[in-house]
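Input (3-hydroxyacyl-CoA dehydrogenase):
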Amino acid sequence: MHRAFSHDAASVGIVGAGTIGSSWAALFLATGRRVTVVDPDPQSMTRLRPSIEAVAGDLAALGVGDPRSHWDKLTAAGGDWSALATVDLVQENGPEALAAKRGIYASIEAVVRPETLIASSTSGLMPSDLQEGARHPGRILIGHPFNPPHLLPLVEIVPGRQTAPEAVAAAEALYRAVGKVPVVLRREIAGHLATRLVAALWREAVYLVEQGVCDLGDIDRAIAAGPGPRWAVLGQGLSYHLGGGAGGLERFLEVFDAPIRSWWDDLGTPVFDTASKKTLVAGAEALEASVGGRDALVRMRNEALLAVLRAPGPLSPRTGLEERAPD
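Output:
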């Protein structure tokens, strides 16, 4: 059955008011949408408004809007699922456990309209698994952001076996409407797209630390001072394309075919045991302390991300946001 899913989502429901959910709420609120947040945890509800206030300056600096100008459009509903009855989109941010998600989806579907789109922020679960037992599985898909969602533009849209094409098109349109850069996967796979890429890099980083080649500080400094800035502008494909000179990627692959294969063959498999994790945690805590603690680290990260996102580039994600407020 074809359903008329909203391509604008003037009213958005957020399920789960933790780090990801509150960041999503801030983004949607900043663009002038009505936002209803459901989370049965009273502490999460208490933290919701301060969490939005904490990132309001970032959103204003990006030109997205200031969520503090739209407090009248925010509803903190606590555990009242019925508050979602009229929303166009539900962005679910519940625990990363299939049984828990299915319970959440049952509660959502009991109150929302058939044409309400349901997107999960899950970083690893499969959409087809989420659809099992659903009343209207065709409207369920993955809308996975990168943290923090209010700043990083990427959202991975992953349809399941029963997801309607109309639902995918609507999700792509509505995420674009709030300044996101949607990437639609052609088929579902564990970890989606970007998370798999990050996991591959992290796997080798852990291996190098375990082998005594370097410590976590060396890893992070190497990424931040080397490939990291380049990735923010071009990504790996275009970086290699330019690395091939006039011959482009074709020439690059011709010249580096053997070296790349030898590096792939030499990549390791980490032990990732308790001792390894303790070393990694100690490394992260040392890096955090070196910049003045957690609050300073978050502030410096966000300021740097803002500078990158405001800079025009070949794949610049944010343009024309001033024209994207809902009707």
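Residues 319-325 have pLDDT under 50 and may be disordered.
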